[in-house]
Amino acid sequence: MAWRTLHRNWGMMLIALVFVAGIRSGMFFDGDIYGIGAGFGMLLLLRMAAKRQDGIQGRGIPGAGMISSGLVNSDKGLRVVLGCICGMILMYVLHGVGQPLSLEGTMNEIILWGSYACFTAVAWRISRTGDGLRLMQIGWHLLGAVLCGSALLAVYGLLELPYGIYHTADADISASGARLGGLLQYPNTFGAVMAAFLLERLFALPPVLRTRTGTLRAAAALLPLLPYTAALLLTESRGAWLAAALACAAGFAKERRAFAPLLLAAAAPLASAALLYRQLA
Fold this sequence. Notes:
This protein has helices at residues 2-23, 30-56, 69-74, 76-97, 103-126, 130-155, 187-202, 205-210, 215-222, 225-235, 238-254, 259-280; strands at residues 165-167, 178-180. By secondary structure, it is mainly alpha-helical.
């Protein structure tokens, strides 16, 4: 029971970290990197030190370790992810030992990528339990609702969101003269995030369609497609559009049997989002 409580606490901490990052423009500014990233890393190190001390004294809680050598060695996917992140950190360290143009900027990147490693390892560990996985799913959907909902409310003028909409007279940058950046305040980043949420919901539909669930559950699964698509279109991020299209093509190639029902089910909300984009653009 103790390890479940521990995983729940760490899951809540991860959700809080992601929400703070979303509200603080995706941790774009150096102060946020130092405060949030370094703070989370220190908490993780303290937790690991406490676990080690408990283990020495024979009071360890089974399953309480967030990161352990056994977990890393037994999980190939985690080794690959952490290896890539540690590789990025090593490159910045080697660059910092030389003559970097900005030592402060290099240190910021080391802290940032270190925070990525800590977050990835903890999220991976928590998601290996049923309760932790459900908690992470709740956090994911809440974050998507906050980011997308606040951005669309700002478009309609119902929520004042400073720098949430980027205005420009350059037609090469924006065809409509405005691009949606939301809480992240950067249209390209916001477009990539909305594309990720859209693709997750899109490819979560096949199991719902195959099990022939009730109308309400099917409608709940389809409902997020409209706002996510509208937000993605309003960013006018061509890179995010292209990445989403390529990911869709790869997903449809893998889910060939679900292609037709998925296309029919998603056609209405996606078409509605396109019409909404034309009205708001």
